[in-house]
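Example complex used in Figure S2.
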Amino acid sequence: MRTIEVCLSPALIGCYSLQGKTAVVIDVLRATSAMAAALASGVKAIRPVATVDECLEWVAQGYEGAAEREGQVVAGFSIGNSPLAFIKAGYQDALVALTTTNGTKAMKLSHDAAEIIAGAFVNLEAVVQYLQRGERSVVLVCAGWKDNFNLEDTLFAGAVVHALTPSFEKADDASLASEALYLQHATNLMGAIEQSSHFRRLAKLGIEDDIRFCMQTNHFDLVPVLKDGLLIAER
Amino acid sequence: MRTIEVCLSPALIGCYSLQGKTAVVIDVLRATSAMAAALASGVKAIRPVATVDECLEWVAQGYEGAAEREGQVVAGFSIGNSPLAFIKAGYQDALVALTTTNGTKAMKLSHDAAEIIAGAFVNLEAVVQYLQRGERSVVLVCAGWKDNFNLEDTLFAGAVVHALTPSFEKADDASLASEALYLQHATNLMGAIEQSSHFRRLAKLGIEDDIRFCMQTNHFDLVPVLKDGLLIAER
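Predicted assembly (470 residues):
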């Protein structure tokens, strides 16, 4: 039977063997939500990059630049990691270079995986179907907040674990715990998130609309899949 | 208001500031359960040490040696980290040098804290009362399994968080998640643990009695407190 595991923080990635598996990078607030939104709104491909400098290099080559640090758009950029902003921008057929505090870092750390995709509540069902169709075991990689555990990414991981049960074997304690957490909050995800540290941090920045959007399921019927350094939509 | 936080793995210790706080080291299966059992059964003090070599040096100075790796007693030692074995041994007034796979390491990593104590289900109520009596904020440090998250330590952390609510502020997402997990499994802790990776690993070693003992609450009305490198009982 295929296995499913949940890496609760990028700092724990060394505890997992990713070879031959599909890594699902999760940064619900907001990088992976924004990736799905951007690709659904006309962006052709997204290049996740680790640093602002690297992002600027791609801008010099014609990419649209998107950069977020500490929840805010980096000075000099017109867009950060807001899914609603990507929908509004409608970068038709554009290439976007994106760097964020946690999400793009988690993606880089997952490089040992056979394939890397991006997951969030906004494309939950598409991710679940993609994983079910595939033949690989799965590691869900929570981006967390500055290397620590966070609630929203764990809840999403739990939602995926639950949807893939019983066709996958839960192979670590984090998959058991994530699923239990999700089941406890499934009927009121937004309520759970309102208690969280990240929500309180982001709410100060006046982006509640974005958060509310990120906690809704199945807006987008696509999966961002990393191919040769570029995320493209698979439907 | 005092804060309470839960560090889910020794690998995440860098995410927490321990200065001025009480660190509760948690290794339910079985180091911190064994520490409480040993001190309740006549041991005068326990010196937690990182390596088997260091343990042997203390044995040469008259300590009883206790060493566990991979769930088993290290060759050449008569005791590892089994609480039932400590009860049976009854090392009256002895000094014990103890090294374990996860628990003693978590203790070393918590050295920045103002004080370090050991917690497990077997002394849950004593730990809760100790923390309530104290004046410090609290970080619960889960020893985990080889630097990764585990279920049993997180459940215990959740039990402490729940008992200390509402006199402490839950200051990170892990404290919220641990409490939710605990509340979900509070009426059947053993059932939750039987699903876990650690249980399956340890059950193969034929120590179910030990595990069952470790999952029962309040056998011992004492708290192991680290003073000058030695754990002694406070009642």
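Residues 2-234 of chain A form a domain with the putative 2-phosphosulfolactate phosphatase fold (CATH 3.90.1560.10). Residues 151-164 of chain A form the longest helix (14 residues).
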